[in-house]
Amino acid sequence: MIYNAQLIKQGAEAKVYLAPFCQRQAIIKERFTKAYRHPTLDKKLTSRRVVQEARCLSRCQRARIDTPTVYMVDTENYLIYMEYIEGCSVREYLVTPEGQTEAAQTKVAQDIGRALGLMHNIDVVHGDLTTSNLLMRNETGGSVVLIDFGLSYVSQLIEDKAVDLYVLERAFSSTHPNTEVMFEQILKAYGESGKASKQILKKLEDVRMRGRKRSMLG
Amino acid sequence: MIALGLEGSANKLGVGLIRHDMTTTPPTVTILANIRHTYHPPPGEGFLPKDTAQHHRSHILQLVKDAMAEGNITPKDISVICFTKGPGMGGPLTSVATVARTLALMWNKELVGVNHCVGHIEMGRQITGAENPVVLYVSGGNTQVIAYAEKRYRIFGEALDIAVGNCLDRFARVLNLPNDPAPGYNIEQLAKKGSKLLDLPYTVKGMDVSFSGVLTYIETNAPALLASGEYTAADLCFSLQETVFAMLVETTERAMAHIGSREVLIVGGVGCNKRLQEMMDQMASQRDGKVFATDERFCIDNGIMIAQAGILAYQTGYTTPLEKTWCTQRFRTDEVFVAWRE
Amino acid sequence: MESYPIDSLPTSGDIHMACFTAVKNAPDLKEKLQNQDKSLTFAMVESNLIMDVFQLLVAATKAAHDNKTGKLATQTVSSEIIYNLSPSKNIAESLKRFGIKEDTTSLIAVKIGGNPDEIMEEMSRTVSGNLVSFSKLDQERDMTKLRQYYKIDPKVTEDKEILNWIIGAIAMKNVQ
């Protein structure tokens, strides 16, 4: 349906294409409709989420957090056109020889921590922080870019931000063994750049203790 | 090997007997008895712990006798007595655990305390043959999206406030629907006659869901919408189901994508709902996947599921010593060490 | 003149753009515009508010999309291109800021679709000025106004980031 597009990722709710747009290579994210949902509800939700994702990206850009620039939003067809960032993911980087050196890991960790601190300062909760959703921009020599805001939302709650960090922590421990030091560095940099970071980090300990959520009453 | 299972964490009292024939690999499983007695409060009311516990106390002995008769079993045939340790309502849980302890002492049997949620999962796996599914556990007290990894049933997502079944039950009370056979069942029947969708709050945060917003909204607005004739009670039931089930299917799909699974197993009382099963099926077929669900004999709380999960643990050498047979209202699914799975 | 395809809407024809400096008939053009003269078939954009060709392409592409779905906020595709350049939803203010004025001396003519030769001929006939390459665009830029209109954070100083900021503002204008 999208002209000259190359499918690069198929997720549970969206397809991601690389396609030409206004003389550039751009990322086009297409959310699809869900057959199981009532059509009216589906339409409402899908377009609302397109808007929500674009808004969170824009909010980050305005706070000067490196995120893909939104080029165009097509709520009729549930599409977001955005900047294509050349670079590798932190996930890929950490398995390269360079990415396994202490110095490189420290630098990346500081970058990530700072970016997340700034993002939480403006009440954007990413919702799906993994090392695949952190890119390293080629043109700047590898500065960290936050991508895929498909599950993001705006929230002031300490709890939501702490869970956001916890999700990343779990992603680190499950995908990258022996990176505890690196995650500590992320939290340190986060603590230095975030406004309410002290409370959030304290909350993170609670979240860890209970393994994410409180007990459910039967 | 035969296990007796006793369940009474909410308003259903269940007694089950299961046999695992250990001479075959895997063991041949036979259900010898699975009987239940449900406490129904009057329409418009929920069940209170005190009354529910009283109900369980007055019926459990007869139920155990009936189950033994149905399975043609004498106490000497039983290897282990399994009971629900939690989660659930304190009073009803302890009333049943007391019976389990007494029987164990009388008959000189081992005891196994079972996590209610794990009971649902193991029974669902046994009945449907699902290998490694993402489990949606939906009942009056629980809403969880679960997947197995490294010896534990891990909770990927859950309700941040009230459970989905609770949300449906409470709306049934607003409409004064009968509690017999179950408020949720009556909502489901009424929803079939509805067609007009009311725009309701839809709250999904990543893998988690929230139902208190939608309940408050529909509770507050229902009287006026019904009085004006703008929506019928059937329309409201339809709208509520369409909305809350979409939330459940969405988070289940996300978990499937996350762990790369193509199977879904729906367990728990709300899991009997045909519309939920149908929606889940549509989602799964979009992903080339498959849905496993059980009927009311197994998805509604029962004793056999407690016997099944208990006997699996018992086969790995696990027993609960008498002094640790206390019950707990809070007992997370991921606290259980699943020794019986690879 | 330069022509670019609209990849997201291949059936709409290309975006044609020509850059003019030393424009002498701005008052005439402005009058034609005000009288909704049918002979004027292309948009005329004030060059000094253009950071990059990309900015024009995005605004024009969006106009082409909205035209197709019948969702133009203004009366014509031409005025829509100008309106789209502005981050503001105020149509009159947007057209005033980004369209040509009586004292405009450098402008960009933009049109979607049609035969390039005919369009070039028409643009050159209508605008009295020097047709120049888009590489001259940098010299026309009014950074003060750009910063003011797009409310660019003073800490944003690099051209690339300024452009991204502008594009973001254009893209998000109608996203509520």
Description of the molecule:
Chain A: Keywords: ATP-binding, Hydrolase, Kinase, Nucleotide-binding, Nucleus, Phosphoprotein, Serine/threonine-protein kinase, Transferase, tRNA processing. Chain A: It catalyses: L-seryl-[protein] + ATP = O-phospho-L-seryl-[protein] + ADP + H(+); L-threonyl-[protein] + ATP = O-phospho-L-threonyl-[protein] + ADP + H(+). The complex is a heterotrimer of chains A (218), B (342) and C (176). Chain A is α+β, with helices and mostly antiparallel strands. Chain A has two domains: 6-83, 2-Layer Sandwich (Phosphorylase Kinase, domain 1), CATH 3.30.200; 87-209, Transferase(Phosphotransferase) domain 1 (Transferase(Phosphotransferase), domain 1). Helices cover 43% and strands 21% of the residues of chain A. Chain A has helices at 39-62, 90-93, 102-121, 158-175, 180-193, 197-209; strands at 6-10, 14-21, 24-31, 70-74, 79-83, 87-89, 124-125, 134-137, 143-146, 153-154. Chain A has a five-stranded antiparallel β-sheet with strand order 1-2-3-5-4, with helices on one face. The longest helix of chain A has 24 residues, at 39-62. The radius of gyration of chain A is 18 Å and the shape is globular. Chain B has two domains: 2-121 and 300-335, ATPase, nucleotide binding domain (Nucleotidyltransferase, domain 5, 2-Layer Sandwich); 132-298, Nucleotidyltransferase, domain 5, CATH 3.30.420. Chain B contains ten helices and twelve strands. Chain B has helices spanning 49-71, 90-107, 116-128, 164-174, 183-191, 212-227, 233-259, 274-286, 296-299, 303-315; strands at residues 2-7, 12-21, 28-38, 80-86, 110-115, 134-138, 143-149, 152-158, 203-205, 208-210, 263-267, 290-293. In chain B, helix 1 runs parallel beside helix 2 and helix 7 (233-259) packs parallel to helix 8 (274-286). Chain B is globular and about 65 Å long. Chain C is 44% helix and 13% strand. In chain C, helix 2 packs parallel to helix 8. The model of chain C has no long low-confidence stretch (mean pLDDT 95). Chain A binds chain B through residues 11-13, 34-38, 40-41, 44-45, 127-128, 151, 153, 160, 163, 167, 211-213, 215-218, and chain B through 9-10, 86-89, 93, 116, 141-142, 144, 155, 158-160, 163, 197, 199, 202, 205-206, 208, 242-243, 246, 249-250, 253-254, 256-257, 278-280, 282-283, 286-287, 329-332, 334.
